[in-house]
Please model this.
Amino acid sequence: MTLQQPVINAALARTLNSTTVLGAYGITISLAVLLESPIQMILQVANALVKDRHSFIVVKLFMITLSLVMVVIGGLALATPFAKFLLERLLSLSPEVANQAHSALMIMIPWPLVIAWRRFYQGILITAGKSKSVGFATTFRILTIAGASFVGIWLYPWGTAAIGAFALLAGAIVEAFVVTLWAWPTVRNSIWNNRAAHGSYSVSYKKLITFYIPLALKSFLTILTWPIISGGISRAAESRLSLAAWPVVLSMYWLVATPIEMLQPVTISLSKDVKNIPSVRRFAFFAGVVGSLSLFLFAISPIVEFYLYRFIGASEDVKKFAVHGILIMFALPLIVALQNFFQGLLILRHRTRSILTATMVNTLLLLSVIAFGVMCFQIKGIFLAPLAMIFSLTVETCLLFGQIKRLQ
Model:
Protein backbone atom coordinates (compact mmCIF):
# COMPACT_ATOMS: atom_id res chain seq x y z
CA MET A 1 0.00 0.00 0.00
CA THR A 2 2.89 2.37 0.48
CA LEU A 3 3.42 2.78 -3.24
CA GLN A 4 1.00 5.65 -2.66
CA GLN A 5 3.66 7.81 -1.00
CA PRO A 6 6.29 7.61 -3.79
CA VAL A 7 3.53 8.31 -6.34
CA ILE A 8 2.27 11.38 -4.48
CA ASN A 9 5.80 12.60 -3.70
CA ALA A 10 6.73 12.20 -7.37
CA ALA A 11 3.79 14.41 -8.34
CA LEU A 12 4.31 17.07 -5.67
CA ALA A 13 8.07 17.25 -6.35
CA ARG A 14 7.24 18.39 -9.89
CA THR A 15 5.34 21.46 -8.72
CA LEU A 16 6.89 24.92 -8.95
CA ASN A 17 6.85 25.29 -5.15
CA SER A 18 7.97 21.75 -4.36
CA THR A 19 10.02 22.33 -1.18
CA THR A 20 7.11 24.03 0.63
CA VAL A 21 4.54 21.61 -0.78
CA LEU A 22 6.48 18.49 0.25
CA GLY A 23 7.09 19.88 3.73
CA ALA A 24 3.40 20.72 4.21
CA TYR A 25 2.33 17.34 2.85
CA GLY A 26 4.66 15.54 5.27
CA ILE A 27 3.07 17.40 8.19
CA THR A 28 -0.41 16.66 6.83
CA ILE A 29 0.26 12.93 6.68
CA SER A 30 1.70 12.88 10.20
CA LEU A 31 -1.34 14.62 11.69
CA ALA A 32 -3.94 12.77 9.60
CA VAL A 33 -2.50 9.41 10.60
CA LEU A 34 -2.44 10.59 14.23
CA LEU A 35 -6.17 11.34 14.00
CA GLU A 36 -6.86 7.85 12.67
CA SER A 37 -4.71 6.19 15.33
CA PRO A 38 -7.55 5.09 17.66
CA ILE A 39 -9.03 2.98 14.86
CA GLN A 40 -5.76 1.65 13.40
CA MET A 41 -6.05 -1.68 15.21
CA ILE A 42 -9.55 -2.48 13.89
CA LEU A 43 -7.98 -4.92 11.40
CA GLN A 44 -6.39 -6.93 14.21
CA VAL A 45 -9.61 -6.85 16.25
CA ALA A 46 -11.68 -8.10 13.32
CA ASN A 47 -9.03 -10.75 12.72
CA ALA A 48 -9.02 -11.95 16.33
CA LEU A 49 -12.65 -11.52 17.43
CA VAL A 50 -15.12 -11.62 14.51
CA LYS A 51 -16.36 -15.20 14.32
CA ASP A 52 -20.18 -15.09 14.05
CA ARG A 53 -23.10 -12.75 13.42
CA HIS A 54 -23.11 -11.32 16.94
CA SER A 55 -19.38 -10.52 17.03
CA PHE A 56 -19.62 -9.03 13.51
CA ILE A 57 -22.38 -6.63 14.58
CA VAL A 58 -20.68 -5.69 17.85
CA VAL A 59 -17.27 -4.97 16.29
CA LYS A 60 -18.75 -3.14 13.27
CA LEU A 61 -20.94 -0.84 15.39
CA PHE A 62 -17.96 -0.15 17.64
CA MET A 63 -15.82 0.65 14.59
CA ILE A 64 -18.37 3.07 13.11
CA THR A 65 -19.00 4.86 16.41
CA LEU A 66 -15.32 5.31 17.23
CA SER A 67 -14.40 6.52 13.74
CA LEU A 68 -17.24 9.07 13.67
CA VAL A 69 -16.05 10.43 17.02
CA MET A 70 -12.58 10.95 15.51
CA VAL A 71 -14.08 12.67 12.46
CA VAL A 72 -15.93 15.13 14.73
CA ILE A 73 -12.83 15.76 16.86
CA GLY A 74 -10.72 16.45 13.77
CA GLY A 75 -13.30 18.78 12.27
CA LEU A 76 -13.67 20.78 15.47
CA ALA A 77 -9.89 21.07 15.93
CA LEU A 78 -9.39 22.41 12.40
CA ALA A 79 -12.29 24.86 12.65
CA THR A 80 -10.95 26.54 15.81
CA PRO A 81 -7.82 28.59 16.69
CA PHE A 82 -6.29 25.35 18.00
CA ALA A 83 -5.22 24.53 14.43
CA LYS A 84 -3.09 27.68 14.16
CA PHE A 85 -1.62 27.05 17.62
CA LEU A 86 -0.74 23.47 16.71
CA LEU A 87 0.83 24.19 13.35
CA GLU A 88 2.63 27.46 14.00
CA ARG A 89 3.41 27.32 17.71
CA LEU A 90 3.81 23.65 18.66
CA LEU A 91 5.29 22.45 15.36
CA SER A 92 7.07 25.76 14.60
CA LEU A 93 6.02 25.78 10.94
CA SER A 94 6.36 28.83 8.74
CA PRO A 95 3.03 30.56 7.89
CA GLU A 96 3.21 29.33 4.28
CA VAL A 97 3.76 25.68 5.24
CA ALA A 98 1.16 25.92 8.03
CA ASN A 99 -1.52 27.35 5.70
CA GLN A 100 -0.95 24.62 3.13
CA ALA A 101 -1.03 21.92 5.81
CA HIS A 102 -4.28 23.32 7.23
CA SER A 103 -6.01 23.29 3.82
CA ALA A 104 -4.86 19.72 3.20
CA LEU A 105 -6.03 18.58 6.64
CA MET A 106 -9.51 20.01 5.98
CA ILE A 107 -9.78 17.65 3.01
CA MET A 108 -8.69 14.74 5.23
CA ILE A 109 -11.50 15.16 7.81
CA PRO A 110 -13.40 11.98 6.66
CA TRP A 111 -10.13 9.99 6.73
CA PRO A 112 -10.71 8.09 10.05
CA LEU A 113 -14.09 6.71 8.93
CA VAL A 114 -12.77 5.58 5.54
CA ILE A 115 -9.72 3.87 7.05
CA ALA A 116 -11.72 2.18 9.84
CA TRP A 117 -14.21 0.76 7.34
CA ARG A 118 -11.43 -0.49 5.06
CA ARG A 119 -9.41 -2.12 7.85
CA PHE A 120 -12.48 -3.85 9.32
CA TYR A 121 -13.19 -5.66 6.06
CA GLN A 122 -9.50 -6.32 5.45
CA GLY A 123 -9.44 -8.17 8.78
CA ILE A 124 -12.38 -10.31 7.70
CA LEU A 125 -10.68 -11.17 4.39
CA ILE A 126 -7.43 -12.14 6.15
CA THR A 127 -9.29 -14.36 8.64
CA ALA A 128 -11.03 -16.08 5.74
CA GLY A 129 -7.67 -16.80 4.08
CA LYS A 130 -8.26 -14.26 1.30
CA SER A 131 -5.23 -12.05 1.89
CA LYS A 132 -4.58 -11.92 -1.88
CA SER A 133 -7.79 -9.94 -2.26
CA VAL A 134 -6.42 -7.35 0.16
CA GLY A 135 -3.35 -6.99 -2.04
CA PHE A 136 -5.35 -6.80 -5.28
CA ALA A 137 -7.58 -4.05 -3.85
CA THR A 138 -4.46 -1.94 -3.41
CA THR A 139 -4.10 -1.76 -7.20
CA PHE A 140 -7.32 0.23 -7.44
CA ARG A 141 -6.08 2.56 -4.70
CA ILE A 142 -2.73 3.24 -6.38
CA LEU A 143 -4.31 3.87 -9.78
CA THR A 144 -6.78 6.32 -8.24
CA ILE A 145 -4.01 8.12 -6.33
CA ALA A 146 -1.77 8.35 -9.40
CA GLY A 147 -4.55 9.73 -11.56
CA ALA A 148 -5.72 12.29 -8.97
CA SER A 149 -2.15 13.43 -8.16
CA PHE A 150 -0.99 14.10 -11.70
CA VAL A 151 -4.29 15.64 -12.79
CA GLY A 152 -3.99 17.92 -9.76
CA ILE A 153 -0.54 19.24 -10.62
CA TRP A 154 -1.58 19.60 -14.26
CA LEU A 155 -4.47 21.84 -13.21
CA TYR A 156 -2.41 23.72 -10.59
CA PRO A 157 1.31 23.68 -11.51
CA TRP A 158 2.35 25.96 -8.61
CA GLY A 159 1.32 23.16 -6.29
CA THR A 160 -0.31 22.70 -2.92
CA ALA A 161 -0.34 19.93 -0.31
CA ALA A 162 -4.11 19.71 -0.81
CA ILE A 163 -3.46 17.87 -4.10
CA GLY A 164 -1.75 15.04 -2.21
CA ALA A 165 -4.46 14.99 0.48
CA PHE A 166 -7.27 14.74 -2.08
CA ALA A 167 -5.50 11.97 -3.98
CA LEU A 168 -4.88 10.02 -0.77
CA LEU A 169 -8.49 10.27 0.38
CA ALA A 170 -9.88 9.36 -3.05
CA GLY A 171 -7.66 6.27 -3.22
CA ALA A 172 -8.70 5.14 0.26
CA ILE A 173 -12.40 5.51 -0.58
CA VAL A 174 -12.03 3.43 -3.75
CA GLU A 175 -10.08 0.71 -1.91
CA ALA A 176 -12.62 0.61 0.94
CA PHE A 177 -15.40 0.06 -1.59
CA VAL A 178 -13.52 -2.76 -3.36
CA VAL A 179 -12.55 -4.51 -0.11
CA THR A 180 -16.15 -4.37 1.13
CA LEU A 181 -17.42 -5.80 -2.16
CA TRP A 182 -14.96 -8.71 -2.05
CA ALA A 183 -15.52 -9.42 1.66
CA TRP A 184 -19.29 -9.53 1.46
CA PRO A 185 -19.59 -13.18 0.25
CA THR A 186 -17.57 -14.25 3.31
CA VAL A 187 -19.78 -12.15 5.58
CA ARG A 188 -22.97 -13.54 4.01
CA ASN A 189 -21.98 -17.20 3.79
CA SER A 190 -19.62 -17.77 6.73
CA ILE A 191 -20.21 -15.09 9.36
CA TRP A 192 -23.83 -13.95 9.08
CA ASN A 193 -25.19 -17.51 9.05
CA ASN A 194 -23.04 -18.51 12.02
CA ARG A 195 -25.15 -17.68 15.08
CA ALA A 196 -23.74 -18.15 18.56
CA ALA A 197 -25.93 -20.03 20.99
CA HIS A 198 -27.94 -17.83 23.33
CA GLY A 199 -25.82 -16.80 26.31
CA SER A 200 -22.56 -17.94 24.68
CA TYR A 201 -21.70 -14.82 22.72
CA SER A 202 -18.02 -14.69 21.80
CA VAL A 203 -17.79 -10.90 22.15
CA SER A 204 -19.52 -8.44 24.44
CA TYR A 205 -19.07 -4.67 24.36
CA LYS A 206 -17.35 -4.83 27.74
CA LYS A 207 -14.91 -7.49 26.54
CA LEU A 208 -14.30 -5.59 23.30
CA ILE A 209 -13.58 -2.29 25.06
CA THR A 210 -11.27 -3.96 27.61
CA PHE A 211 -9.41 -5.70 24.79
CA TYR A 212 -9.28 -2.67 22.50
CA ILE A 213 -8.44 0.31 24.71
CA PRO A 214 -4.77 -0.68 25.22
CA LEU A 215 -4.45 -1.32 21.47
CA ALA A 216 -6.03 2.05 20.64
CA LEU A 217 -3.71 3.85 23.05
CA LYS A 218 -0.76 1.90 21.65
CA SER A 219 -1.70 2.93 18.13
CA PHE A 220 -2.17 6.55 19.21
CA LEU A 221 1.26 6.66 20.85
CA THR A 222 2.89 4.96 17.87
CA ILE A 223 1.45 7.43 15.41
CA LEU A 224 2.12 10.32 17.80
CA THR A 225 5.77 9.68 17.06
CA TRP A 226 5.36 11.08 13.52
CA PRO A 227 4.33 14.64 14.51
CA ILE A 228 6.89 14.45 17.34
CA ILE A 229 9.55 13.63 14.76
CA SER A 230 8.28 16.33 12.37
CA GLY A 231 8.34 18.88 15.20
CA GLY A 232 11.85 17.79 16.13
CA ILE A 233 13.04 18.12 12.53
CA SER A 234 11.55 21.62 12.29
CA ARG A 235 13.60 22.66 15.37
CA ALA A 236 16.83 20.90 14.37
CA ALA A 237 19.63 22.15 12.16
CA GLU A 238 18.95 22.44 8.41
CA SER A 239 15.22 22.17 9.12
CA ARG A 240 13.94 23.35 5.73
CA LEU A 241 15.83 20.77 3.67
CA SER A 242 15.28 18.06 6.31
CA LEU A 243 11.50 18.64 6.24
CA ALA A 244 11.51 18.44 2.44
CA ALA A 245 13.61 15.23 2.42
CA TRP A 246 11.79 13.48 5.27
CA PRO A 247 8.62 12.53 3.29
CA VAL A 248 10.87 11.11 0.57
CA VAL A 249 12.78 9.03 3.14
CA LEU A 250 9.53 7.82 4.71
CA SER A 251 8.06 6.88 1.34
CA MET A 252 11.01 4.56 0.70
CA TYR A 253 10.96 3.20 4.25
CA TRP A 254 7.20 2.54 4.16
CA LEU A 255 7.55 0.82 0.82
CA VAL A 256 9.65 -1.81 2.62
CA ALA A 257 8.17 -1.67 6.14
CA THR A 258 4.42 -1.71 5.48
CA PRO A 259 4.35 -5.26 4.04
CA ILE A 260 6.46 -6.30 7.04
CA GLU A 261 3.91 -4.77 9.43
CA MET A 262 1.34 -7.23 8.04
CA LEU A 263 3.26 -9.84 10.04
CA GLN A 264 1.12 -8.86 13.04
CA PRO A 265 -2.26 -10.07 11.64
CA VAL A 266 -0.51 -13.02 9.98
CA THR A 267 0.98 -14.01 13.33
CA ILE A 268 -2.46 -13.75 14.96
CA SER A 269 -4.06 -15.95 12.30
CA LEU A 270 -1.37 -18.65 12.04
CA SER A 271 -0.21 -18.85 15.65
CA LYS A 272 -3.61 -19.99 16.90
CA ASP A 273 -2.04 -23.37 16.21
CA VAL A 274 1.00 -23.40 18.53
CA LYS A 275 2.88 -25.68 16.15
CA ASN A 276 3.08 -22.86 13.60
CA ILE A 277 4.88 -20.40 15.90
CA PRO A 278 8.47 -21.48 15.08
CA SER A 279 7.76 -21.23 11.34
CA VAL A 280 6.16 -17.82 11.73
CA ARG A 281 9.13 -16.64 13.83
CA ARG A 282 11.62 -17.77 11.18
CA PHE A 283 9.61 -16.09 8.46
CA ALA A 284 9.41 -12.84 10.45
CA PHE A 285 13.19 -12.79 10.91
CA PHE A 286 13.78 -13.60 7.24
CA ALA A 287 11.35 -10.88 6.08
CA GLY A 288 13.05 -8.34 8.34
CA VAL A 289 16.53 -9.20 7.07
CA VAL A 290 15.38 -8.99 3.45
CA GLY A 291 13.72 -5.64 4.14
CA SER A 292 16.80 -4.16 5.79
CA LEU A 293 19.13 -5.40 3.05
CA SER A 294 16.78 -4.05 0.38
CA LEU A 295 16.75 -0.60 1.99
CA PHE A 296 20.55 -0.57 2.35
CA LEU A 297 21.24 -1.77 -1.20
CA PHE A 298 18.78 0.74 -2.58
CA ALA A 299 20.56 3.63 -0.83
CA ILE A 300 24.02 2.69 -2.18
CA SER A 301 23.01 1.62 -5.70
CA PRO A 302 22.55 3.73 -8.86
CA ILE A 303 18.82 3.04 -8.57
CA VAL A 304 18.58 5.73 -5.90
CA GLU A 305 19.66 8.34 -8.46
CA PHE A 306 16.91 7.30 -10.86
CA TYR A 307 14.32 7.13 -8.09
CA LEU A 308 15.10 10.52 -6.55
CA TYR A 309 15.93 12.47 -9.72
CA ARG A 310 13.74 10.95 -12.44
CA PHE A 311 10.80 9.49 -10.49
CA ILE A 312 10.53 11.76 -7.44
CA GLY A 313 12.08 14.79 -9.15
CA ALA A 314 14.00 15.87 -6.03
CA SER A 315 16.55 18.68 -6.11
CA GLU A 316 20.25 17.94 -5.55
CA ASP A 317 20.14 19.18 -1.94
CA VAL A 318 16.99 17.20 -1.07
CA LYS A 319 18.51 14.13 -2.75
CA LYS A 320 21.64 14.26 -0.57
CA PHE A 321 19.61 14.60 2.62
CA ALA A 322 17.24 11.78 1.59
CA VAL A 323 20.08 9.33 0.87
CA HIS A 324 21.61 10.00 4.29
CA GLY A 325 18.26 9.39 5.97
CA ILE A 326 17.66 6.10 4.12
CA LEU A 327 21.15 4.83 4.97
CA ILE A 328 20.64 5.47 8.68
CA MET A 329 17.21 3.79 8.67
CA PHE A 330 18.30 0.55 7.00
CA ALA A 331 18.15 -1.50 10.25
CA LEU A 332 14.54 -0.54 11.01
CA PRO A 333 12.74 -3.18 8.86
CA LEU A 334 14.34 -6.02 10.88
CA ILE A 335 13.43 -4.36 14.18
CA VAL A 336 9.86 -3.74 12.97
CA ALA A 337 9.50 -7.37 11.83
CA LEU A 338 10.40 -8.70 15.28
CA GLN A 339 8.25 -6.05 16.97
CA ASN A 340 5.16 -7.06 14.96
CA PHE A 341 5.76 -10.77 15.54
CA PHE A 342 5.95 -10.28 19.31
CA GLN A 343 2.90 -7.99 19.30
CA GLY A 344 0.89 -10.56 17.33
CA LEU A 345 1.65 -13.25 19.91
CA LEU A 346 0.66 -10.96 22.78
CA ILE A 347 -2.60 -9.92 21.05
CA LEU A 348 -3.44 -13.59 20.52
CA ARG A 349 -3.02 -14.13 24.29
CA HIS A 350 -5.06 -10.95 25.03
CA ARG A 351 -2.02 -9.33 26.69
CA THR A 352 -2.72 -5.95 25.14
CA ARG A 353 -1.63 -4.02 28.25
CA SER A 354 1.90 -5.36 27.88
CA ILE A 355 1.98 -3.97 24.34
CA LEU A 356 0.81 -0.58 25.59
CA THR A 357 3.50 -0.46 28.29
CA ALA A 358 6.28 -1.14 25.77
CA THR A 359 4.88 1.50 23.41
CA MET A 360 4.80 4.10 26.20
CA VAL A 361 8.49 3.48 26.87
CA ASN A 362 9.20 3.81 23.14
CA THR A 363 7.41 7.20 22.93
CA LEU A 364 9.15 8.62 26.00
CA LEU A 365 12.56 7.56 24.74
CA LEU A 366 11.90 8.97 21.27
CA LEU A 367 10.85 12.32 22.70
CA SER A 368 13.87 12.40 25.02
CA VAL A 369 16.39 11.58 22.29
CA ILE A 370 14.95 14.19 19.92
CA ALA A 371 14.85 16.88 22.61
CA PHE A 372 18.40 16.04 23.70
CA GLY A 373 19.68 16.11 20.11
CA VAL A 374 18.04 19.45 19.33
CA MET A 375 19.01 21.25 22.55
CA CYS A 376 22.49 19.87 23.13
CA PHE A 377 23.96 19.04 19.73
CA GLN A 378 21.89 20.77 17.02
CA ILE A 379 22.07 17.62 14.86
CA LYS A 380 20.60 17.89 11.37
CA GLY A 381 16.97 16.80 11.43
CA ILE A 382 17.47 14.16 8.75
CA PHE A 383 20.09 12.46 10.98
CA LEU A 384 18.31 12.92 14.30
CA ALA A 385 14.94 11.46 13.31
CA PRO A 386 16.07 7.99 12.14
CA LEU A 387 18.59 7.64 15.00
CA ALA A 388 15.87 8.36 17.57
CA MET A 389 13.52 5.87 15.87
CA ILE A 390 16.10 3.08 15.85
CA PHE A 391 16.97 3.51 19.53
CA SER A 392 13.39 3.73 20.83
CA LEU A 393 12.06 0.86 18.67
CA THR A 394 14.93 -1.40 19.70
CA VAL A 395 14.15 -0.87 23.38
CA GLU A 396 10.42 -1.49 22.78
CA THR A 397 11.12 -4.74 20.91
CA CYS A 398 13.35 -5.97 23.73
CA LEU A 399 10.55 -5.28 26.24
CA LEU A 400 8.05 -7.20 24.10
CA PHE A 401 10.45 -10.13 23.88
CA GLY A 402 10.75 -10.09 27.67
CA GLN A 403 6.96 -10.29 28.02
CA ILE A 404 6.84 -13.28 25.66
CA LYS A 405 9.53 -15.09 27.66
CA ARG A 406 7.54 -14.57 30.89
CA LEU A 407 4.49 -16.25 29.31
CA GLN A 408 6.40 -19.35 28.30
Notes: The chain has a mean pLDDT of 86. The CA atoms of residues 281 and 341 lie 7 Å apart.
